[in-house]
Amino acid sequence: MTNDRGTAFAGWRIMRSDAGRFWATRERRFPQEAEDAGALRTVDGDDLRELCRSIAEQESLADTTAVTS
Q: In the predicted model, is pLDDT for residue 5 greater than 70?
């Protein structure tokens, strides 16, 4: 895997596999409540758009959990 430093999504490390898939890992843990609700620190996608959508879903889940806590 290679790290695409030109691709920025604050707080996430984005990589591309040798097969061309994109992966991202959140650099910091989500709060425990968000992880308990299903927020994932590592996501993947066939392309950058799908990956960004997956990241946004995880951040949204964490935000929703924080609001209701």
A: no
Contacts of 48 (CB under 8 A, 6+ apart): 7, 22
pLDDT digits (tens, 9 = 90+) for 13-56: 999 999 999 999 999 999 999 999 999 999 999 999 999 999 99
> By the 8 A CB rule, do 15 and 51 touch?
no
Q: What are phi and psi of 65, to 5 degrees?
A: -65, -40
- Whole-number Cα distances in Å, 9 to 21, 37, 54: 17, 22, 12
Per the CB < 8 A criterion, the answer to whether 25 and 55 are in contact is no
- Strands 22-26 and 42-45, by their bridges, are antiparallel
Cα gap 51→47, rounded to integer Å:
6
